[in-house]
């Protein structure tokens, strides 16, 4: 820890005068960069992969001391963790926030302590952007728009009228960046194409809650043919509920099947895509560790870093009905994105 090491160096100098022996020992310790990471929790396979990416990157072998805290989905735990990091005088704070709001005070405390804060995955909504140094993550709004454009292209290709598309949305944790962006992407698609959005309810990004919400929706609506799940774990729960109700999961919605769409592209999610249970899975890349390290190295070198750092992401589908979609990202830039039919070879070659 740099701040503590400086204090130790001053103490050693006072006690030992100009002796180089303690100074050399302290200098060697100064090479270690201490990082405090407040992770939102372990609610999904995606989150587990995100955590492992950070732990493997900020390892002792790579010259880091990582202080990891699992907030268990509670903002108050994250506020406590950040304040603990400040007291421990870490060199950098990584924060994967449970929700976007409520961070101004604690981030001001970190700023006052001259500790750079890197926001990871979800964004923060603060009154002053200088309260954090930089952000790494995915464009959740673009993800939602990609999914909506895929659904429009698929139903158009299959000759399915928009008024016959009946969607339920199993949302993520309400107020999280992923939920806000993915819900908005769907809602824009509903407005643009005239689909029927029957219901929206949070599945809290978990399989158990996703199943519970899907069971309830199936009891309320007998005409559901598209289930828009805002992560893979919710999709797993939805699939279990649909099949338990005696219905068929698949892409042939014109003939009574219920289509499941998802986000994250975890190994299990893409395996279900290969099996035809998830029709379209939009990637949300969890491997943020290496990019976070790049930013820390740049800051250590005194370099300027970009405020927003989006990671690249793909779209995978069960078949080749749709080969590409056009969508607008959060910076109002339109792009064309390939849709890749999933194969076992692709699944085997991925890191998560």
Automatic annotation (TrEMBL):
Residues 1-23 form the signal peptide. Residues 35-279 form the Periplasmic binding protein domain. GO terms for cellular component: cell envelope. Its main location: other. The keyword Signal applies. Keywords: Signal. One of its GO terms (molecular function) is carbohydrate binding. InterPro entries: Peripla_BP_I, SBP_2_dom. It is found in: Cell envelope. The keyword Cell cycle does not apply. Belongs to the bacterial solute-binding protein 2 family. This is ABC transporter periplasmic-binding protein YtfQ.
């Amino acid at each position: 820890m740099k701040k503590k090491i400086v204090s130790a160096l001053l103490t050693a100098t006072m006690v030992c005068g100009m002796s180089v022996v303690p100074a050399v020992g302290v200098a060697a310790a100064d090479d270690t960069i201490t990082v405090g990471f407040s992770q939102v929790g372990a609610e999904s396979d995606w989150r587990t992969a995100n955590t492992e990416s950070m732990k493997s990157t900020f390892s002792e072998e790579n010259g880091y001391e990582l202080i990891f805290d699992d907030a268990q989905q509670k903002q108050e735990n994250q506020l406590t963790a950040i304040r603990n990091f400040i007291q421990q005088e870490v060199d950098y704070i990584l924060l994967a926030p449970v929700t976007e709001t409520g961070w101004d005070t604690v981030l001001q405390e970190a700023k006052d302590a001259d500790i750079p804060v890197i926001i990871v995955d979800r964004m923060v909504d603060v009154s002053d952007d200088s309260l954090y140094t930089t952000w790494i993550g995915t464009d959740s709004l673009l993800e939602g728009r990609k999914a909506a454009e895929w659904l429009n292209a698929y139903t158009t290709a299959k000759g399915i009228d928009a008024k016959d598309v009946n969607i339920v949305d199993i949302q993520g944790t309400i107020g999280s960046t992923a939920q806000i962006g993915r819900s908005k992407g769907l809602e824009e698609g509903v407005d643009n194409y005239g689909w029927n959005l029957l219901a929206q309810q949070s599945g809290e990004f978990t399989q158990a809650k996703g199943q519970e919400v899907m069971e309830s929706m199936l009891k309320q609506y007998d005409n559901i043919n598209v289930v828009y799940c805002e992560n893979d774990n919710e999709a797993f729960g939805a699939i279990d509920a649909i099949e338990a109700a005696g219905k068929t999961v698949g892409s042939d919605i014109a003939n009574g099947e219920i289509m499941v769409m998802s986000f994250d592209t975890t190994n299990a999610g893409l395996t279900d895509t290969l099996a035809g249970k998830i029709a379209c899975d939009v990637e949300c890349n969890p491997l943020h560790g290496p990019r976070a390290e790049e930013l820390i190295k740049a800051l250590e070198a005194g370099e300027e870093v970009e405020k927003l750092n989006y990671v690249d992401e793909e779209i995978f589908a069960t078949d080749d009905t749709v080969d590409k979609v056009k969508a607008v990202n959060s910076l109002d830039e339109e792009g064309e994105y390939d849709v890749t039919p999933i194969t076992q070879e692709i699944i085997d070659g991925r890191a998560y």
